[in-house]
Amino acid sequence: MGTQAGVSDPQSTCKHPFELLAELEHLGRAHRVETPSQEKPRDEWRGVGFRLGGQRLIASMNEVVELLTPPWVTRVPHTESWLRGVANVRGNLLPIVDLSDYLGKGRTNPNRLSRVLVIKQDSVCIGLLVDEVFGIRHFLYPEQWRALADSGEKAIMPYVDGVLRRDGSDWLVFSMAALMRQLASIRVTA
After folding, report:
1. I need a labelling partner for 80 at 20 to 30 A (CA). Which of 66, 87, 127, 139 fits?
2. Closest CA to 11 of 1, 26, 24
3. Is residue 35 part of a domain?
4. How does DSSP assign 88-140, residue by residue?
5. Whether 163 contacts 144, CB under 8 Å
6. 145, 163 in Cβ contact below 8 A?
7. Do the Cβ atoms of 112 and 124 come closer than 8 Å?
8. What are phi and psi of 47, to 5 degrees?
9. What local confidence, expressed as pLDDT, does residue 35 receive?
10. Measured distance CA(85)–CA(149) in Å, rounded
11. Would 74 be classed as within a structural domain?
């Protein structure tokens, strides 16, 4: 049997798979387009933004364990005013600190925007009542970072590590670890 005119013998056109791969590689290299060199990836810093009065603050994502709507709080007699009391959160007692009152900025009046930031150091958890939480914010580090000269608020300065600037707004970087160290060293009874 012969082959028809114009139709090639399938046996003669079949190539070994490695030959096909080599041809594809050759074609790919021949038509390769150089891609622009990529910039070095920038470090991203993420934190939980929150508000105390008119001040925007941000805490590292590593320092905030959970966000809660303000729970029912049972007042503990003979304690400082900034210790709002304790709350039962899923069967665990959680001390609730009014962060604004603790910093001497006045007592927080909880409303629909108020939240509790739960922080933990070692095995100790504390809830911090704040005016509002803005959610997770992303910053480029070190491009958006700068040292803080003076915020004018002496009570907050021991807890501020610096300032992050984004979209024309300054966010004071609040150190929850520094706050926990300070809270561990003071008496809460009045």
Report:
1. 66
2. 1
3. no
4. EETTEEEEEEEHHHHTTS------TT-EEEEEEETTEEEEEEESEEEEEEEEE
5. no
6. yes
7. no
8. -150, 170
9. 60
10. 35
11. yes
Closest CA relative to residue 111, chosen from 127, 128, 130, 98: 130
Q: Three-state DSSP class for 50?
A: strand
Total count of domains within the chain:
1
pLDDT tens for residues 38-67? Answer: 665 678 999 999 999 999 999 999 999 999
**Closest among 145, 133, 121 to 42, alpha carbons compared:** 145
CATH of the domain at 138: 2.40.50.180
Instruction: Collect all residues with Cβ–Cβ distance below 8 Å to 77 and sequence separation of at least 6.
Output: none
> Identity (one letter) of the amino acid at 46?
R
| 117 strand-pairing partners | 67, 128
- Domain of residue 153 covers 43-184
How much is the pLDDT for 155? 87
Mean pLDDT over residues 130-140, rounded?
A: 96
C-alpha 130/C-alpha 68 separation (Å) is 11
Asked whether 47 and 137 are in contact (CB, 8 A), the reply is yes
- 88 CB contacts (<8 Å, ≥6 apart)? 71, 72, 94
Q: Find out whether 137 and 58 touch, Cβ atoms under 8 Å.
A: yes
